[in-house]
Amino acid sequence: MSSKRPLKVLIVGASISGLTLAHCLDRINVDYEVFDGHPIAPPVGASICIFPNGCAVLDQLGLYESLAAISRKVELVSLRLAGGRAVRALEDTKALEQRTGYSGIPLSRQALIQLLYDHIPDKAKIHAGTEKKVVRVEHREDGVQLHTADGGIAYGDVVIGCDGIHSTIRSEMWRIANAAQEGALAEDRSAFASEYSCLFGISGPVRGLGPGDSHLVTGRPGYLVFTGAKGEVFFFLYQKMDRKYIWPDVARFSRQDGEALALRHLNDSLTDKVTFGDIWKERETFTLLPMDEGVVKNWHWGRIAVLGDAAHKVAVNLGQGGNSAIEDAAALANAFDAALKVPNTKPHDFRV
């Protein structure tokens, strides 16, 4: 491989967007390092469905076959009313694949991140664990510095925050921008709000739910349920909260809150054969969180930018949070590639 191009990217967050960006930068021969304050692919109990827009990017990165091998395409999409009565069942999902080249592929978020990590060519560039948590960013005229919890310092030309809805890099971007110009980016501090909560998790196989099944149940609460290759069940229960929370005011829930919510809805019918209680009985992991929604107006300032949930957060029933994060990474890498093709480009020229 030829020598690296004149750019060093510091990525904060070994997330879907962060690791996808790492793969994209490898493809365009740009140097990078990734920092995350947690272990790689923690078992948080969340799930994701990779739709054609996400599949197309992963395919270009040479990851689609590995993705398809650990999951199973969605084969049945059933729309249901409260009580489980089917309104419409789309049993032939081949039309989506015929039109786009890809189908929906459900799997756990942990499995997707592990896949992305496993295929990173040089894992020495990935720094994960509590000691690698980024605690401060220094923004300089000629580059950026990241300070980690263990006292380490990393140097680069730009820093990209792929660290989720509670983004440290977004907060640092706000701090640095405000220091340069009082009130800068202030409108983004209340960009996120939540009106709904979501109880999500993973259960073992449930009688009446086959691999490749997907059920969307409207009502109060609403449900989204789909199954993976081994029959594992990914479930979401979402309902409106008592009021709207606008950042920095955030609803907080305990594990007991999640259990109490589930117990109130054990008898809810999701299909003519399956209740929520059937799924809950087989639960392996679960979490109750507010469903933050919103888009910050400013995704970048100087040498700092944010991607994925750090920039835009959508409700889980859209199924586009992770897919949009994948597209973000590809779009940014394309922008870097185009900029580096400009004659006489130097690292200190870069702003995001």
UniProtKB/TrEMBL annotation:
<dbReference type="InterPro" id="IPR036188">
    <property type="entry name" value="FAD/NAD-bd_sf"/>
</dbReference>
<protein>
    <submittedName>
        <fullName>FAD-dependent monooxygenase andE</fullName>
    </submittedName>
</protein>
<dbReference type="InterPro" id="IPR050562">
    <property type="entry name" value="FAD_mOase_fung"/>
</dbReference>
<comment type="similarity">
    <text>Belongs to the paxM FAD-dependent monooxygenase family.</text>
</comment>
<feature type="domain" description="FAD-binding">
    <location>
        <begin position="245"/>
        <end position="341"/>
    </location>
</feature>
<keyword id="KW-0274">FAD</keyword>
<keyword id="KW-0503">Monooxygenase</keyword>
<keyword id="KW-0732">Signal</keyword>
<feature type="domain" description="FAD-binding">
    <location>
        <begin position="8"/>
        <end position="172"/>
    </location>
</feature>
<dbReference type="InterPro" id="IPR002938">
    <property type="entry name" value="FAD-bd"/>
</dbReference>
<feature type="signal peptide">
    <location>
        <begin position="1"/>
        <end position="22"/>
    </location>
</feature>
<keyword id="KW-0285">Flavoprotein</keyword>
<keyword id="KW-0560">Oxidoreductase</keyword>
<dbReference type="GO" id="GO:0004497">
    <property type="term" value="F:monooxygenase activity"/>
</dbReference>
<dbReference type="Pfam" id="PF01494">
    <property type="entry name" value="FAD_binding_3"/>
</dbReference>
<dbReference type="GO" id="GO:0071949">
    <property type="term" value="F:FAD binding"/>
</dbReference>
